[in-house]
């Protein structure tokens, strides 16, 4: 069971306040470029075709708006709400929206995901997404999934992209941190000693949480599965040398992407994913 406090709101807010100004520098790290392109590929294939015209989205824990930006620019008909705990993070999202001309379509709201159902009560969304460590930092992922499910319009989609406990254990073992790897397998842990503790997940656990919230699980996958990040990729800037050399070559990047992309829908590969991807939907009335 992963539910229960992992860090205080002040600890989480302080952690992300310290990263806000440089957070988008991850766009320069070749490994995360690969991961982002795989995530966008999954969204393009499995999510975007199912959304209605003029759809409304909620970027739950959206930070600097990296993914709100993708949706808002790919679909000029879309409107959305970016909801985040840290004003220093979503201040960058607001600036990005102004710079790229969609500020009238994206509202930025400060709030705690533990109360999102109450704070956004009465609003409806066709798409809700939470990416990377967002669900890991809430006290009760089960409760947050239920609250998010309650904000979906009939037929609406909930997409979660979250840290895998098995990958975290592998990562910490490569650093010789056997005790931390043991914690990871129990569903808790972290990747660096400067980050707060967080929840870690398994595919089956994610399926159960979504089903318990009354949603239908349409897809469970995970990626990247063939190439994992090194310690340097846990930092805002810099890259592990071997990854930078491999992925810094455009032809090699494209080959790796093609290999990874070919495994997106392969159920047997899900558990190897660095992050786990779950697409669930609210049944239409």
Automatic annotation (TrEMBL):
Domain of life: Bacteria
Listed Gene3D superfamilies: Vaccinia Virus protein VP39 (3.40.50.150)
Alphabetized InterPro entries for the sequence: SAM-dependent_MTases_sf
Keywords: Methyltransferase, Transferase
Record Pfam families: Methyltransf_23
GO molecular-function terms, A-Z: methyltransferase activity
GO biological process: antibiotic biosynthetic process; methylation
This protein's name: SAM-dependent methyltransferase
Source organism per UniProt: Streptomyces spectabilis
